[in-house]
Structures
1.
Amino acid sequence: MQAVTLTLSDEIFAFPTRILHEILEPVPVTRVPRAGSFATGLINVRGTVVPLTDLRVAFGMTSRPPDEHTRMLVLDVPVAGAETTVAVIADRVLDVTELDDAAVGEIPEVGMRWPPEFLSGIARTDQGFVIVPDLARIYAAALSEDSADFSFEKDPSSCV
Amino acid sequence: MTDDDDGAAVFLIEARELQSAIERNLLDLSEAPGDRALIDALFRDIHTLKGSGAMFGHVDLAHFLHGFETAFEALRAPGRTASDALINVALRACDQITALLDDPAAARAGNASLIESLDAALGGGDAASGPHPASAQATPAVAPAEDGWRISFSLGPTALGLGVNVPALLGELKDLAPDAVRIACETGALPGLDALDPACPPFVWTVEIAADLDPARIDEVFLFLRDDLVLEVTSLAEAAAPESVAETPQQTVASAEPRPSELPPADVPAEPAPATASRQRERSTMRVATERLDEIMDRVGELVIAESRLHDLSMALQSPALMAVAEDIRRLTSGMRETTMSIRMLPIGNLFSRFRRLVHDLSDQLAKPIDFVTAGGETELDKTVIELLNDPLVHILRNAADHGIEDGGARAATGKPRQGTITLSATHAGAEVHIRIHDDGRGLDDGQLRAKAIERGLLPANSQVTGPELYRLIFEPGFSTAPAVTELSGRGVGMDVVRSVVQGLRGQIDVDSEPGHGTTVTLRLPLTLAITDGLLVEVGGERYSIPVAAVEECVELPPDLALGAGRSNFLNIRGDLVPFLRLADVFETPGLRPDFQKVVIVAGSHGRIGLVVDRIVANAQTVIKQLSCIHAGLKAFSGATILGDGTVALILDVGHLIALGTAIEDRARKRKGAA
């Protein structure tokens, strides 16, 4: 598959270019109160309000403050059964390359630092190992977490 | 004929409209059984549908309607009135039209029995007295011929104007025997261009079918044109030597029909066919796909945003020339916004008329006579709102008919008229539309509701709540006081649906009830979903929009309350205690609060609450964008909007915040009770 590669906390990730809309320089982010750390904010992408998500949170990596390499990638991801446009923070966008499907290997059972259910494969390239995340799973997990942790309904009195 | 598919699609839309017109007229007829004008209107619609159905190849539909029409003919006899039984069968027949439009193959089977029921409902006499008219009328008095048929026809003066499609007609004839048809057009009678009336070409078409064929099938092709046609069918054997057919060069079907564009306009006769002219006058409206409207709305939304950016810029630059242009653009944009919104507005009456059928059927099913009264059908609402209102209103009406209205005997015993009345009305109230469903039934039973609520743990055991506060509970999921689940209601699902849809539309529901006199449910809905006026406020440098319609007033936060924590969370507004929320706390906003905080008092149908903010920024037009499902769990926000500077601001959901305020009040009351 043709893929865009990027780094998150020194690891290389790849998304299929098929789902990629555009790559933005960082734009102003509106914080969404009590939305947790994964989908912290909203951005304006050409008149559309798009949630900004941080995959580093999903993979338990440490975030770093934005610098001149930080980018926002606008992607189409299936969330709760519907194609949803989301933005993802990248520490740095590297390249658009062709990933050989055969090279996207099985996920090793052991020795993994990352939650295996969030990966759809790992590819070996000349740049090193490239993680292909399972975005649908990641967003589904974020949704279910959302309702458990971030709801205002849970205890209204705790808000005052 | 490249737009055949378009034509078919338009036919389907029109057919559905005609179907609902037929249904509406039938329901009207059930109230005024002898009304000639209604009966005539019914015939007109059925006939139109039959004709256009046949034109677009809906043969089954056309046959069925023909039967429908014929059976109904008896109703035209002077002095005949439509019985309830007849109306009921006719309504079923009306459903059959929809079924035939959806899936002719599957629905076809029902045709015969329905026509029979129609005949029976009209007195049976017609059904018994001979062969079915649809088949009786068709056969021409010509003996079957072994070697084929020669058909020669020319159209009457108004046929083309009425939409007869010659190529389609020829195509149908050709389909009778695809390999053995010869078509020729006699152009001998064609006058010069200056005398030619393109709406009434004097062509004579000759079609030879060299196949053994039931003449009834030929006649079927012309079934719906008979009045406007000179038709001659002879067997080929009888026909004289077919010299004209053999010698005339064949013309292709597609180019045979003269097209207006091929004629110099100046030479078109001064008098166009009257039918065509009147048609054009009627067409002052135009159908537009709803997606295109949505697209325009999106564009206008973006325009509004861009305009406010321009406005900010012109203010900042203070250039008179730029400001003048910005002012012009502002005026144009707001005009554009209003026009676009008005395009999306539809009268709610269309929706109301759908429910007449529902109540009619419910009345039948429950064996309770129910009168259905509607008012304010001309009230306009955003089309999206209207579409979404269908389900909630169905549930409320079912409840009213099933639980609200008592049966005739019980009503008579309490001195009410035997016939119950359900009133559905719509009115404008400021930026809201109120839709009211009133029944004059038994009303809600406070005691029973309370007992049920306590049983389900929704209320404490010693609760004494009454009135609207108690009635609100009927919208809880699974809450039903019906002793038994019936086919219609009692599962406690319906009202939950009502609540979620209305909340989704940023609306509110009020329930009022008077024991013995009935129940009124009021849905209060915003006029439009797409754009509202918002009050922009700032908390810790972050901006939020509050719908202006909900804002009652803005006051200064008294200094003694400024520090907050541990103190009372109530504000004294002219003697009334109003609970308030510090948005900075609710939203976990970092940073210190300024010295003079403001309180925005917002009100809904269930109370009011003060929202403490750092600063009130401005009034701004707000184009509402839905939050993605990722943030849909956050009930405090009803959406987001894009501000003039291009950043995103969240829109507060006032209803939810007021619910939080109610919770504060309850807690304070409990604390007071405990002390």
2.
Amino acid sequence: MLVKEIMKTSVITLSPEAPISEALKLLTDNHIRHLPIVDEDNRVIGIVSDRDVRDASPSIFSKQVDSEELKNPIKSIMTHPVVTVHPLDFVEEIAAIFYEEEFACVPVVQNDRLVGIVTEKDMLYTLIQLTGTHVQSSQIEIKVPNKIGILPEVTAIFGKRKVQITSVLIYPYKTDSHFKVLVFRVQTMNPLPIINDLKAENFEVLWPNTSESEL
Amino acid sequence: MTTNCHSAFVYSKDFEKYRFSADHPFNQIRVAMTKDLLEMENTLNQSQILMPRKATDEELMLFHDPSYIDAVKRASVDELTDDDELKYGLGTEDTPIFPNMHDAASLLVGATLTAVDSVLEGKSKHALNLGGGLHHGFERKASGFCIYNDGAIAIKYIREKYNLRVLYVDTDAHHGDGVQWAFYDDSEVCTLSIHETGRYLFPGTGNTNERGLKSGYGYSFNLPIDAFTEDESFIDVYESSFREVMEYFKPDVIVTQNGADAHCLDPLTHLSSTMKTFEYIPLLAHELAHKYCNGKWIALGGGGYDIWRVVPRAWAQIWNVMTTNSIFTGNLPMEWISKWQTEAPVKLPDSWHDHEGIYKSIPRKAEISEKNSKMLEKALQFTRNKMKFSK
């Protein structure tokens, strides 16, 4: 999946000379946490987070409403250079950036111009789509030997039953590298025929597993 | 508490024409078995039985898209393309195509409308259509054994024809998603669904945070209980939520969906309820219908895939509660057992109740009950706050 498929294209930005108070207002009014700072050609020259702005604001205990600090230009507190991504980068690469850099937002830049933004929240939303839990489905978990060609063997069983697969995830099986766990979300209310087919082919079905309630 | 309420039992042998294939788990013979059981217990007589009508296209369109109804009609005569099959959720393992499926599905809807009219025209206090409760049907898609969503259509029908506020209570083990989404932004219809958590089970939705949209926010309640939940915890969740939502919403009429697949013997789900749960479900619905709605209560069937040992007993109790405000106890009529045992692949029960030890004891019982009560708190938090501040 490419960045351009998940990025937001209407981005709220600020110019470097704008006062911090304006950033504060934009963040609050739009319920957002990041503002790319762009020059007149829409080039990203910095970024500020709600935390940066808060650090620069007077304490909530201070009575002063119109404080001097907030009149400083935003460029005085912005972070730069900025880590950016390209619309044709992979979504997984952004996940790695978020994990390693410990921040939660990247501007998307093409030909040096800002074209979009991706936040941690967009990323989580995408992950939910990938797990398929947002559409009607049942979950089946199967433990399989870790060998080539196993996935088509399993999916053929679903195909034969005319059951639509909404998502497939492949996990390692605990610490044993000889096995994998396949997690399918399938559009059926009655997974029993498939489970019987899987068992008949000697696959180990981890869930549904009713042994806890069996007589 | 009112006993001997005049009630209507909607029934036609033609319910059985809603049959996807010989080995499909959804089998309407369970309605005939229930009727038989009630007749042999002398609690159902001919004067209480209403013949259903078929729903008209206009009625189906109260909820369904005309293009979908058209697709079901084409499927009925085997003229649907593969692409359209996929688009409309037909021809799958769950909802295969069968001849005359449109007629069979329209009859189930018509039966629910017959039940609605009987109650709202004042001809009976309560009405029961065990052929209905097909809560997974979507506006333009069949799913989960459901073609037309009779519950959603009936509620639209009540809104339009009678202009009453409706509480829909769904105790099927699967989330009542089709009905929930149909009224998600409607503050005049409140939905309450208790179901096995969607982490594994179809359809996967029904989390506590699904509370409705826009003006409908706060009018969808979801109570997802853990796999292997037993009677005590199920009943606690059901009673607390139903009573509180009733007090909060104060509906004019109650529609209940009485899927009987939360039973431990049900092959498609993983809950551990017994007949105790299914005895209590109608007793509370009956009590609350009289307390808040002058008795107006329409009960529907739903899921239930152990059609031999579970569904007839569970559903017969609904009727007994409707008409006598009591439950059957003791042994089942011998006559009924010997008649149906010849067809059943499993040994039929001899008693109205389940024996102790029907399922192996659940080692995680305390943990499951604790988790369910936390979930209940979360689901009702919004209502509790709202009621506190409105006082």
